[in-house]
Amino acid sequence: MTQEPNLDALIRRRIRGLRIGRGWSLDTLAARCFLSPSTLSRIETGHRRIALDQLVPIARALGTTLDDLIESAEEEDVVIRPEPDSEPGLTTWLLSREGTLNGVTVAKMRITPERARGDDELGVHPGHDWFTVLSGTAELRLGERSILVHTGHAAQFSTMVPHAIRAHGGPVEILTIVDHDGERAHLHPGAGRTKPPGAGKARPGG
Q1: Can you tell me the distance from the alpha carbon of 29 to that of 83, in angstroms, rounded to the nearest whole number?
Q2: Residue 194 falls inside a structural domain
Q3: pTM for the whole structure
Q4: Average pLDDT per block of 10 residues along the chain, 206 residues long
Q5: Cβ distance 132 to 153 under 8 Å?
Q6: Which single residue of 31, 80, 131, 144 has CA 20 to 30 Å from 195?
Q7: Is 149 contained in some domain?
Q8: Does some domain include residue 202?
Q9: What's the distance, Cα to Cα, between the start and end of the chain in Å?
Q10: Domain of 37?
């Protein structure tokens, strides 16, 4: 496999870094990718040419993809410039790229009291949500419970419980991390959201 010298060195560092990050010895990774420990050691240290048929099982064993392993450090702008997506009472900024961060999405949301709705708007979807309050106070509705989450505090909860996030006493800004189901429910209006029996139309921010 022909590679630029800088990229070749980067791939070797990635392999070693991922292995050490998992707490694996050379023997452990070698067994998982069906290479000898000496071969793997020479790959990591640059004393052996990296072959494509070796990279594929190495990437698989490390829980990553070949594309991620060989991606050039210069191919992608590391700065994310989010564009606001607004609707009445809610503005959302996506702070992570699609398909990154192991299947989760990071977003900033600004919710205003204009978004307040009745209990029939509580939504349900698989998984767990997490958010922290950057400014203001969030009202987290979980079934029959109403929980105030203040600036600097965070909340994590099962989204199989009917829930909604609202502003309390003024605008609130939150930073949220959601999985695939949570992204569909909260960040894409009308997609992937189920509701309790008799509920009204579900919308993001809940």
Answers
A1: 41
A2: no
A3: 0.58
A4: 68 93 94 94 90 91 89 70 91 80 82 72 84 97 95 94 93 89 61 41 41
A5: yes
A6: 131
A7: yes
A8: no
A9: 49
A10: 5-70
